[in-house]
Amino acid sequence: xxxxxxxxxxxxxxxxxxxxxxxxxxxxxxxxxxxxxxxxxxxxxxxxxxxxxxxxxxxxxxxxxxxxxxxxxxxxxxxxxxxxxxxxxxxxxxxxxxxxxxxxxxxxxxxxxxxxxxxxxxxxxxxxxxxxxxxxxxxxxxxxxxxxxxxxxxxxxxxxxxxxxxxxxxxxxxxxxxxxxxxxxxxxxxxxxxxxxxxxxxxxxxxxxxxxxxxxxxxxxxxxxxxxxxxxxxxxxxxxxxxxxxxxxxxxxxxxxxxxxxxxxxxxxxxxxxxxxxxxxxxxxxxxxxxxxxxxxxxxxxxxxxxxxxxxxxxxxxxxxxxxxxxxxxxxxxxxxxxxxxxxxxxxxxxxxxxxxxxxxxxxxxxxxxxxxxxxxxxxxxxxxxxxxxxxxxxxxxxxxxxxxxxxxxxxxxxxxxxxxxxxxxxxxxxxxxxxxxxxxxxxxxxxxxxxxxxxxxxxxxxxxxxxxxxxxxxxxxxxxxxxxxxxxxxxxxxxxxxxxxxxxxxxxxxxxxxxxxxxxxxxxxx
Length: 527
Fold this sequence. Notes:
By secondary structure, the protein is an alpha+beta fold. Among the domains are: 1-70, Orthogonal Bundle (Arc Repressor Mutant, subunit A), CATH 1.10.10; 316-527, Trna Endonuclease, Chain: A, domain 1. Helix content is 45%, strand content 20%. It has helices at residues 2-15, 22-31, 36-46, 76-88, 92-104, 109-116, 126-129, 135-144, 171-198, 261-275, 295-303, 311-315, 317-332, 338-354, 360-379, 427-447, 467-475, 501-512, and strands at residues 20-21, 52-54, 66-69, 106-108, 148-150, 158-160, 207-208, 217-219, 222-224, 226-230, 248-259, 276-277, 280-281, 285-293, 307-310, 383-393, 396-406, 410-417, 454-461, 482-488. A hairpin with a 3-residue loop joins strand 17 (396-406) and strand 18. The radius of gyration is 27 Å and the shape is elongated.
């Protein structure tokens, strides 16, 4: 009995010095005179007993566990020491998450997806899950370390560090701020993707961008801000016997603040997991963008041959502030009253007016038109207008700019074409919207048990309608109960709420004056 107590005392003395892996503990006990076998039996016997904490869900390579004095579990020193052990043993995703939680106190689940280099089970195939741990598995490990989930299962789901200095009565408000930052990043990803598309770095059609509900995309089982494909000459490849070239994938990460080294590291790990097959990495372009970069992050990105984009240098602080306001407006339609939305829009319209000589206005023009359309629907009694919804269509997807339902029967769908005042609607605009986007949204709504009996579908443009577009619309077969229309900017005047009518029309006029050098033209990527 005396010997047993002495051995247990040795164990507690070791644990008092900090967190240890099972192999480290065995080695230290052997140094104190125990045989390896006795040391292993002691750890098995004392696991989660008599003040000893052993990790259950969190497992290291070779199924090792972490051990600690139970009295320190969940403290900040414990959390910091666990992070060091995770880095040393190659559990890099968890190590990054632990470090970020210690630094910020709270992380939205999208931040966790990226730091962990995992995706939700619902978004990946069983084969992709076998390539690494799932989000749910890693989340249980973080909870075991003392972190706490708030708003579980909702869009606000976030993780709070143990012993955080954040006020408990303000956690839901903090979670709301976290999702606003993530949605802001979704807008940045959309704007950056559009710019790369206009520069012909990204192909026109083969691009996936996030929406407000799901502010990320999945590429080969990994989370990114956006992705697309490039047909630039040196990047495309020809396979033997193929009639068309194989494009190069382009994956994009966007951050609203200063990009850190762990964020760059996680980007590299996600690229590896998404593109390495049979120990060989497929060619891929990585684009990482942020308001700015700290030196370590920039150096790592540069040496890793990533394309780095500083939003502050590209657009300026005023433009970025305007984009923050845009996110607040777009993300707030579901909760805000019409007068609140209109007040915020008035602020945004003024900011955009001040920015009319800034190149960012080209990128914000489509979002500005969608905001005007959503405000009009909201003022007409349509509940919670939705913007940027991506819905399935056959083996691909379609983007729905704005839609809303009034009462239990009336669906309104609007396609927004932020065109120059001399650019007419294209035949392809009309065909694609009315024969693909509209039926795709209807099918998606019915699948979600969202009911309607009649539908008004319209294309709103800041340019001319064009005779060809009108003729094309007349030739299409329209379902009974549907109303289909093409509308110009001057037809929107009476529908814009009075308190923002002047600002709204000025914004539409600014959009119509933007030159796009043909970037609005529809391009077929099927080479």
